[in-house]
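Task 17 of the worksheet. Students: predict the tertiary structure of the chain below and write it out as structure tokens. Keep your answer in the requested format; marks are given for formatting as well as content.
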Amino acid sequence: MMKRSKAAAGLFLFLAVPILSTQGWGQSSPADLVLSGDVTGAQHQTYFEVPFAVPAGTHRISVDFEYTGKEERATLDLGIADPERFRGESGGNKSHFTIGETDATPSYLPGSIPAGQWRLIVAVPNMRPKTVSHYRAEVRFNSHQEDASFTAVPLATGNRWYRGDLHMHTAHSDGNCASQSGKLVPCPVFLNAQTAAARGLDFIAITDHNADSQNEAMRELQPYFDRLLLIPGREITTFHGHFNIFGLTQFVDWRITPGGLDLNTVLRDVRSKGGIASVSHAESPEGEFCMGCRWTPPADANMSLFTAIEVINGGRFMFSSAKYWDAQLRQGIRLAAIGGSDSHNATNPPGPPGSIGWPTTAVEASELSVPAILNGIRAGRTFVDLTASHDKVVDFEADSGSSHARMGETLYFAGPAPIHVEVHTAGCAGSAAHLLVDGAESPAPPMPVDSTSDPVGFATTLEAGRHWLRIEVRDAKGSLQLVSSPIYVNFPE
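Model answer:
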């Protein structure tokens, strides 16, 4: 048993014991520490502290707090201090909070997490003379769930295509918009969320350049935007080009230099922290027009450490990086297709260039949560919608007779084989599906699609070896509408 606080000597006791199986309120991982004790009527309108030890190497602390006696109007208010300073107090309005290096629950201060003795600060505004209230605080260190997301629960459930925008900027890098008086000013994060919600998106990633300060605003906004998932993101800006990372709030060093930090180390760091990486606007114009924007990685870059590629970028003008994508696929690198508006002004009117939602990335996922969306991208269950529609869909599957694969999966066969491809669309009446093999349009003619859900089919023959298939949907004028992720043929696992 630990030493009792002087403020409450003889009036309560607490235990600080590691546990292995207790689940926290709304948490999916066991608590690292449990602090518990009793508060009596003698502590009415007093304060007491509950110390606990934070180990070195901690970058986030999360606390779940509950107590009994509320039916007798027992009231305990919660705060916390680190070894050096006060870190916040939320009264009785929050039973859960998290404090990380870049973000914290409103009421609390983000920042470094020093090792040593921290203290829960508990106020007792009301405790009747004969009431005994039992409190329990579950403490978690380095919660992966809260590193990856700003919500503990999915915003929607059910397997379907969720639609979002995976590339945009705010005041935390170079996002600007008009102020109330019409001046161009750094654009606040809430405008991006507000615009995305108004346009019916399911998720967005805020990807400010080499910044993680936007996480604090996103942590505050997520409870209000309970139908729009806010995915932690960052655009890592290097002298070799840009890439986006998704699903982590921790600092990632980006300063790649010859003889110093290398790209592969950065990408492995992202993966080790649970995130994924995607090449941004690979075929962007280069030079002083957009310094460092074109993707020209070092010769030793391991491109298999990327999960996706931004095939369509909607920034200054909507353009494709499909040639670079195909070049990587030719090398056996699996990369899912995503897109992003690259918006730098949340108030841009609907439509490209640079308007939130143009293009949209659709991800098939089991629920609307950060882990599910990232898993959908990892699985290659994605397509890019250049029209920012809410109903257009393209999906496809292929059969070689001995093997079957859906979009994102691998088709296997040993020698030359006839391949049957079946394309499923929705919302694309009047358009045509085009089959691309190894980056070039198949000799099979485009197949018109109608307003029904009936699939259309292609037949082709592939030689032995590695190939990839993908689908493009184009309108009656030949304008590109949808781009699918590939089916990989004889790719190594």
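Marker's comment: The chain has three domains: 6-142, 144-390, 391-493. The first helix runs from residue 144 to 148.
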